[in-house]
TrEMBL record:
Its cofactor is FAD. Belongs to the FAD-dependent urate hydroxylase family. One of its GO terms (molecular function) is FAD-dependent urate hydroxylase activity. This is FAD-dependent urate hydroxylase. Keywords: FAD, Flavoprotein, Monooxygenase, NAD, Oxidoreductase, Purine metabolism. PANTHER family: MONOOXYGENASE, PUTATIVE (AFU_ORTHOLOGUE AFUA_6G14510)-RELATED. Residues 2-341 form the FAD-binding domain.
């Protein structure tokens, strides 16, 4: 079977590897002109890591992943410890340690595994057509490519999604801006083996360990969409937003090199959609379920898509259209639920209802870790990667 995948991100390349290993002829196209991942890093929880293990990349991912043994929340103003606990129950309940990873490292691993010779950059798709024998994509230079199926892993502003749905769906702004990047491990902020988060006033400053003695930091600042930001301003908006915060926060901010690693991203998501397939064309990853990052499942959900797509093409043989519909049926509800969980979590943590966020802060001060672990594992145990074996 000939397969075209639009998009060379985590979802597109992992799907490409899965289908390629089944013997299919897979080609990936992406509009970018060079491999430059968006965002500094990502959270690979156990369900996402299991997909990469399934693709034969267990040892490589373990080398790329940060050893995140603990989790802690601190008061943003005083630096006081609100709660601190081990993350080992996540591994015990799911059978797999989670790994934060630098996005560029993971992306390069997936590209190398798939084969750069099968990835064509600088190719912007502008149109899709199909008939009973195949699907054809047209690029902005007028050239075309035809395959048995087309998978659109073309991100939050997906052209493939527009085609599948027959209309444009607008995304929703979640009310905050996220700044993220990579810095050297900084134990003035938090231990090298800990996911550390400072919270106050609906804001968050957080860091996770990744390989290479680095922290992946992500900082949330509630505010309106569309505010001007000049990259020449560097961390000035962060210094303003977190003026007077605890010394650990000031130490982290001071360690940021804006020229090397600082991204600013407005956080938007997409209402859950049930339709992922139109004939021989399907969507995957952010194209199907653009999710706020508040439950850390965006990349993992894309990897789950690839897992299910690969399994179904390995086990069902009625027709490509039938298999794609089974993929939609298997994935839409689970992915949509994670979108809604991300929304609820975002609302709780960013003081859109101040009393709700204050109640969460109060709860953190008496938290033993049990409730937070339950939430993390709850996002994982319904994953198809667990095959019913994950423990609640």
């Amino acid at each position: 079977m000939r397969v075209i995948i639009i998009g060379a991100g985590v979802g597109g390349t992992s799907a490409g590897i899965a289908l390629q290993r089944l013997g299919h002829d897979v080609t990936i196209y992406d509009r970018i002109h060079e491999n430059k991942p968006v965002g500094a890093a990502l959270s690979l929880w156990s369900n996402g890591v299991k997909v990469l293990n399934w693709l034969g990349l267990a040892d490589e991912v373990a080398r790329l992943g940060g050893l995140m043994d603990r989790m802690a929340y601190y008061d943003g103003h005083t630096g006081e410890t609100m709660t601190q606990f081990s993350l080992s129950p996540v591994t015990e309940k799911t059978g797999q340690r989670p790994y934060p990873v630098a996005r560029a490292d993971l992306q390069q691993l997936l590209i190398d595994t798939f084969g750069m010779d099968r990835i064509h950059l600088g190719r912007k798709m502008v149109r899709i057509d199909q008939d009973s024998s195949g699907a054809t994509v047209t690029f902005d230079d007028g050239e075309t490519a035809t395959a048995d199926i087309v998978i659109g892993a073309d991100g939050a502003k997906s052209i493939t999604r527009d085609y599948v749905l027959g209309e444009r769906r607008e995304r929703t702004y979640r009310g905050y801006v996220n700044y993220n990047g990579l810095v050297p491990v900084n134990e003035a902020f938090g231990p090298a083996d800990q996911w550390t988060t400072y919270v106050a006033d609906g804001k968050r400053v957080s860091a996770m360990p990744v390989a290479g003695n680095r922290f992946y930091f992500f900082v949330d600042v509630p505010g309106p969409s569309g505010e001007d930001y000049d990259r020449a301003d560097g961390i000035a908006p962060l210094e303003k937003a977190f003026a007077g915060w605890a010394p650990g926060v000031q130490s982290l901010l001071a360690s940021i090199d804006p020229e090397q690693s600082l991204n600013r991203v407005e956080i938007w998501d997409l209402d859950p959609i049930d339709t992922w397939v139109r004939g021989r064309v399907a969507i995957l990853g952010d194209a199907a379920h653009n999710t706020a990052p508040d439950v850390g499942q965006g990349a993992c959900s894309a990897l789950e898509d690839s897992f299910v797509l690969g399994l179904l093409f390995a086990t069902t043989t009625v027709s490509p259209e039938d298999t794609l519909l089974r993929y939609e049926r298997a994935r839409a509800e689970r992915a949509g639920d994670l979108v809604e969980r991300g929304r609820r979590r975002s609302h709780e943590t960013h003081a859109f209802e101040p009393e709700v966020t204050q109640a969460w802060y109060a709860g953190l001060r008496t938290e033993t870790g049990e409730n937070i672990i339950r939430g993390i594992v709850g996002n994982i145990i319904e994953s198809p990667t667990g095959m019913g074996s994950d423990l609640p």
